[in-house]
Amino acid sequence: MALPARAAGQAGVTLVPGPPLVRPVSAGQIETFRGTDGARLVLTRRGHGGRRAIVVAPGLFTHRESPEHRALAERLVDVADVFTVDVRGHGDSGGSFTWGVREPSDLATLAQRLRSEYDRVAGVGFSFGGYHIGAAAARYQVFDAVAMVATPRSFFILDRHFLLRGIRRSLSALRRRRHTMRSFSLFPRRGSRPDATAIVPAISPTPLLIAHGTRDWLLGTHHAHDLYARALHPKSLLLVEGGSHAEGMMIAHPEQLAEPLMGFLDRWL
């Protein structure tokens, strides 16, 4: 099932005091597509109708309309049209979350369909979403640039950050959330799908950015260093000083994450 056609209208022009005239950010347009098993998946499109697109996969306990992702999309539209996806079992999407088994194929399906409308397509993923994007890039070579933010090197590692602070902070964040993970399958057996350390070498020759906050309360920076060491060129490593976990950096450290991310995407798209 093809993505619905772009809406004809654009948001009205917004003026700021004095010149220059600022190009408006399009109000989010909700669209749907079908996953590999027919699950109905939902995304929000924002942009100005350029020839470049960015697919964004949120982390495990966020969704496409969370404040962090709205803020991120409003920055990234200066580079390309942005498609923020509720992966299966999250937000308004159907199906059950499969812990990285089906999600990469879903995102690859979306990226391939966007190529009928756009010249270049990038993928950006946060935490578990970084795994989905990276796996889609490695298996299907569907992206022209990839950014993996706070992605765990292995799903069977519990860092000291998680044991000491992560559980408490995770539960606190979940109480403030709506439309996070709603449905999920059993966790896959070890070895049933590769860890991120196994997939990052296969992303090359697609340019790869690995980003991580130095005060990530869930995953230590050794995850980023390990992924970077195993990745092949072209590759870049961004450590956000004082940055928290994944898309949480868009709240406390938006400039330190968004500006280098935008520069990377603008260079390679």
Terminal-residue CA separation: 26 Å
How are the strands ordered across the major sheet? 1-2-4-3-5-6-7-8
Count up the helices.
Answer: 8
User: What is the chain-wise order of helices and strands?
Assistant: EEEHEHEHEHHEHEHH
> Which class of secondary structure composition applies to the elements?
alpha/beta
| Helical content (DSSP H or I, runs of 4+) | 25-40%
Average pLDDT across residues?
83
**Proportion of residues in β-strands:** 15-25%
* Poorly predicted regions: 1-25, 160-164
Q: Shape, please?
A: globular
> Biggest sheet: strands, sense, closure?
8 strands, mixed
Radius of gyration: 17 Å
Q: How many β-strand runs?
A: 8
Structure description:
Helix content is 31%, strand content 18%. With 269 residues, it is α/β, with parallel strands linked by helices. Strands 1-2-4-3-5-6-7-8 form an eight-stranded mixed beta sheet, with helices on both faces. β5, α3 and β6 form a beta-alpha-beta unit.
Secondary-structure topology with pairs:
Elements: E1 29-34, E2 40-46, E3 52-57, H1 67-76, E4 81-86, H2 103-114, E5 120-126, H3 128-140, E6 145-149, H4 160-175, H5 196-199, E7 208-213, H6 222-230, E8 235-240, H7 249-252, H8 254-268
Helix pairs in contact: 2-3
Keywords, please?
269 residues; 8 strands; 31% helix; 18% strand
